[in-house]
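Quick question: what would this complex look like in 3D?
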Amino acid sequence: MIALVLAIARGWLRIYTRGTPAAVRDARRAEIECDLWEQRHEQQSRDQRVIATALDVLGRVVRGVPSDLSWRVQHRERRGVARRLRGGVVAARRYGWTVFPALVDVIYVTGAARMGTPSFVDTPEQLAMAVGAAAILWGMLLLWRGTAPAAGAWLVCLGAAAPVLLIARGAPLSLLWAVLAMGSATRRSDALRAQRRRVAC
Amino acid sequence: MGSYLPILAEVRRKADTLLPLEASILSAGLELGEFHGYSLARAIQEREAARRLTAHGTLYKALGRMETAGLLVSRWESADGAAAEGRPRRRLYEVTAAGAGALAAWTAASADAAVATARGVALGGAA
């Protein structure tokens, strides 16, 4: 019982101190760890009832939650809106190109595995989707590494296009996703090649 | 909103006033001399014959606030001493002269307020 309560107290301590400056966080954790140890030690040395101590510790944790949260508000590391937006833009530039190829890949893998089993899917189309999904994955890997951007873009385009030719009659949205995936891959390839040219210069 | 909470807290609270918990910390701390969080919580409980110990969050937040205000000073005891006794390091606090002065002022103000209240009650009763 006491071990469980101490684990709860420590877990809560770790949660609300996360994201605060290291020095403040470590001091708070060490101080409350010490408090928990002292109370536990006192219970053992005075031979007090374990359940009473456990309930006392739990009560101290629960009653202190509003103050803990207010302490956190005061000490959390503040990241300005501009910095967060900048981080979002950087992430979108770096990883945004993966969205549509990954979406098309998921659609093809799902189709190939007959998950959802659309009525128009039969064996040759499933095979086309499996091959397309593999080509897209391979192309994305090449684009991710930046080793062969042109080949990567071609693989994504061919992988996305091939099954669409077969299934476009039954799934018009697939065509849209495939076109967007091709666009993302070619843009990524262009960006990588431009970057290489800049480095070479 | 969170960014403004400390400001709101400052607005709500008058300068040079103590919260009841802060007064309890100072008076218990003056008796103890040098103290750590748990010994202080135990001392406050015994002094006030309270059923429960002060909550962790409430106690340590108040200690931090009072240290920032200069009412307390703290130091971490040496790791060797704590290790020799087989326990974690304690953060030891001491009431400063400013803390003792703030407590004296708060006690006087509380006594005045009590006298004024008693006088008001007596006047009300006479009318």
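Answer marked as accepted. Chain B has a mean pLDDT of 84.
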